[in-house]
Write a structure and sequence with these properties.
The protein is an alpha/beta fold. It has helices at about 35-45, 75-85, 100-115, 140-150, 155-160, 170, 185-190; strands spanning about 10-15, 30, 35, 50-55, 65, 90-95, 120-125, 130-135, 165. The chain has a single domain (about 10-190), classed as Spore Coat Polysaccharide Biosynthesis Protein SpsA, Chain A.
Length: about 200
């Protein structure tokens, strides 16, 4: 029987059409090192199971690739990850977010294991809730399915329906200034090469 608060699974969202980047973000590299490879390797050292959400060709010996079953975009990937993962709680990040912190992941994992919540996420200084580099419980599957069935893909609308633990920006900052930096453009890629930098959430 599954532990109702187990958190041994991770999901990497494989990205969409990547129009601003100009190529598939799963092929991003920093100083010659593939970002996806680094993420999978790092998460394999933290989690028992690593999933990759991808509707296009992708394979890796340490990860299980899962295509969307309903809808599209990040919500579809999170829904399918929760449907397929072996544990009750799923860590979610994206293939264009190269910087993760094991201490921060462990901090969040203890929260979602201990509290009766749907998700553990961070807030930026402007109040924006970060949907990635966070944990989701399988209790999110029904609201996710309902949103996808209605064609509602805006993640902020989903978060309004969930019971959240929001980590304040001053706490997140203790674990690093670049945890939520994502690479959308060639300019972002150039900036990532100059990390670490002060981009506090």
């Amino acid at each position: 029987m599954m532990n109702r608060r187990s958190a041994r699974s991770a999901l990497i969202l494989g990205g969409g059409k990547s129009l601003r980047m100009g190529y598939d973000k799963k092929k991003l590299a920093l100083s010659g090192a593939p970002v996806m490879e680094n993420l999978i390797t790092a998460l394999t050292g933290i989690f028992k199971e690593v999933l990759v959400s991808s509707n296009g060709p992708f394979a890796h010996p340490l990860a299980r690739v899962i295509p969307d079953s309903i809808g599209a975009g990040p919500l579809a990937g999170i829904y399918q990850g929760l449907a397929c993962c072996e544990s009750a709680c799923l860590y979610v990040t994206a293939c264009d977010m190269p910087f993760i912190s094991r201490p921060y992941i462990e901090y969040m994992r203890e929260i979602i294991r201990a509290e009766d919540i749907d998700a553990c996420l961070a807030a930026r200084a402007d109040g924006f809730r970060e949907p990635f580099n966070g944990f989701y419980h399988k209790s999110c599957r029904e609201p996710l399915y309902n949103a996808l069935s209605r064609g509602e893909y805006k993640i902020s609308l989903l978060l309004d329906k969930l019971k959240l633990h929001i980590i304040p920006p001053e706490v997140v900052k203790q674990y690093g200034a670049d945890l939520f930096f994502n690479i959308n453009t060639p300019e972002d890629l150039a900036r990532a090469l100059r990390a670490p930098f002060d981009d506090s959430p």
